Structures are given as C-alpha cells and as structure tokens.
Amino acid sequence: MTAVIEVSCINCDMCVPECPNQAIVMGAQHYEVVPALCTECEGYYDVPTCIAVCPIDCIYLMDAVREV
Question: Can you tell me the mean pLDDT for 43-53?
C-alpha cells in the first residue's frame, strides 16, 4: 500500500517534513506521494505520520475504503 493525497489538499506543508522517506513532493496542483518511496512509515512510526498530521484528513492509504 501507499499513501494517497486527495485533490482537496491545501498545501499546508504539515506532511512534508514528517515523511521519513521524503516521499511527498509537490505535484502540478497539490502535494503527491511517490509510491516507490512510501513505506507507510514502517520502521519509523506506528502509523503513517502524514495521515496523522494532516489537518483536513485528505491523506489515506490506497487500499483503505473511503466514505464519500
């Protein structure tokens, strides 16, 4: 699995410094996660820190089911 950042991202910069793998980069409109680099923080933290620090909850794990 990898983390995904939705288009509702407000580019607040909270997640970028928290990623131990530097897997979060600026895309055309908002931040994006580089799947090849995302390890869900395994070996670093108990939960993906990008998800934990996002103030608008726009980051989720790709295999997670999202309610719309």
Answer: 96
